[in-house]
Task: structure prediction
Amino acid sequence: MSGVWVNHSKLRVVITGRPNVGKSTLFNRLCGRRRAITNPVPGVTRDALEEECRIGGIPVTLIDTGGVKADFEDSFDRLVAERALTALENADIIILLLEIGTLTVEDESLIAKLRRYSNRIIPVVNKADTVEKDYQASEYYALGLGTPLPVSAAHGRGLEKLIEAVKARAEHLPPNPDGPESAGRPLTIALAGRPNAGKSTLANQISGREASLVSEIAGTTRDTVISAAYRNNRMIRIIDTAGMRRRAKVSEDIEYYSVNRAIQAMFEADVTILIIDANEGLTDQDKKISAQAVKKGHTIVMALNKWDEAVPDKIRLKKAEDKIRFQFPVLEWAPLLPVSALKGYGIENLIKTVIKADSQQNQRIDTAKLNRALMEWISLTPPPTRKGKPFKVKYITQVSIRPVRFIAFVNRKEGFPESYRRFLVNQIRREFNFTLIPVDLSIKEGQNEKLR
Result:
């Protein structure tokens, strides 16, 4: 895809193995935090999860893959396996995770597929939580893949030797090409929405590669999947989150953690793209997702997905937008754009809008300039009076960016008209180009010391 650059500037270390061998536990241990969801149920990890971290002081992109089965029960198992094997093709180092005991059919099947990458493989034998089991791990020398390293991912045992092995391999690898130096601060975008609204398809469309697993099965994405791309002269990190359902439907432990991780990712991002299914419109769950973001002053761009027209019908689009604005007026400031994640329509405009919104939320207005504008607004539309006593707005100042917040100092806070506060917010938006983001204005009684 033109205009897309995928960040492979760091050493890529991929963890692979059969289902439920402990890959996600090892991934979390090497990351130093609980990034991947772990559960005794086989097949919890589905997408290839990426995390930038340091192993032994070396900056790497660590990748956790879904478990590769020997026999596919359905097409979904095949998709997971294909995604895992694709990740291996771009790997600099492959950590092949096995388990103390006899090799399974799934182990043998995967090892056969990995033989062509043998010079990149570090064989690691998990669940070696005693010295006696360390000796059992030596049986894996027979695989011909190098010295097997016994570890216990759950307890952190043996990780020092694994880290040293990664460092030793890294020293013999040629340097990877760097990404564009002009990328500046990465812009982190979280993709949120109800299950099967098209988040993963949109993530792949923006990044220019299949980082997220796409399926018609709702709830395919469980972890937050991170990918990166260089677009419009900006480095962009894309976080594809799990679909958020009504709490009554979040019955599985796995899904419970998925939803919590998605909400956390949304708040850690610079901008959230709320993906709305054009065929279903705004759902109650979309409103709940948005409400959580609005409380935090978080910037949202709404993407009306599955709008499969290269040139949107203006009348039809206006009706859809009016309905959404009526249903959820709290997002009246949020841009709403028609897109087709499947066909690629509207993606470029969406990215430009997200970048512009981020620029707006990082804007700080000079206090003197702000108060000159305030005097003009007051002269044209004075504050109302109450019981014969006029309200006065004495001073206004911006107190933060991301989120953008202002404080207005008034002579009387009690009874200050909400309508006039909204008037001031709208004037700030228009005058200083905060048209795509939330703007908060608090009323405080008194006068800033600068005017005394």
Notes: The radius of gyration is 26 Å.
